[in-house]
# Entry
Amino acid sequence: MNPSAQPPICNYEGSNYQQVFWESGERQYEDQVEAIAIRRLLNQPGEYLLEIGAGAGRNTPRYRTYQRIVLLDYSISQLEQAQARLGQHQRYLYVAGDAYHLPFVAGLFDAATMIRTLHHLAQPQLALQQVRRVLKDGGFFLLEYANKQNLKAILRYWFGRQAWNPFDLAPIEFAELNFDFHPKAIRHWLAENDLQLIRQLTVSHFRLGFLKRTIPLKVLVALDSLAQLTGNWWQLSPSVFALAQAGEMRKSAPVNGFFACPQCEGEQFHELPTHMECLTCGRQWEIRNGIYVFR
Ligand SMILES: [Zn+2]
# Structure
């Protein structure tokens, strides 16, 4: 890919996002309802799962039915935090790379997930195209996205408290590299990329400060768990989980190899303790404390 065509990347390098947002940020409600959605949607047995935007590995232990999990994140420091949490167990492989150039051969994965990540992508269609490329035919894709057509945004729009229209199909960038999407646009992009929608769950219906302060956590989680099941009929929650399956439109060739060079797409490497050398273009990619750095 032409380097000038590289979309901007939201980089969490050096960020204490996990600690501030999840651990001391009163996000137990969001965390628990996400766990329920993942359990409901991603319970198929499989070998390789790719977690795109894995961050510090908060969701990684939840992919219980897959044998090996590849954690991909742009930020090396997020992956170091994930390593500290999950360990250098052979079940996990840590890869620093970007969602627009997934450094893997085509058809490698039985499943892929992208949770709270599309939210930061300026070119979501490009990333979805990459997801389909690395999935096997019939492989599963679990996508979470921020829904612009949520009840709070609709009410704010109707009462003149918000300028942007939640019913409009275009993404809204409400802060730099933070996007909310329309469910219809997402369904269209999935279909366009040979990812067939199977089921949708709406999540985090009660993400409102006063509810979280006044209603016990357990009750709020149970209510959300019920409300999730209406996700195929309407989507008015701030977060939506969509499960899709890779079709057979782009039948992939038998898989040979694992990594693919993001610079030249070469699939042959010479692996040394400190780096991977691409045998096609000669570029050396660092291996830093067990993290394969393809960026
Ligand atoms: Zn190369």
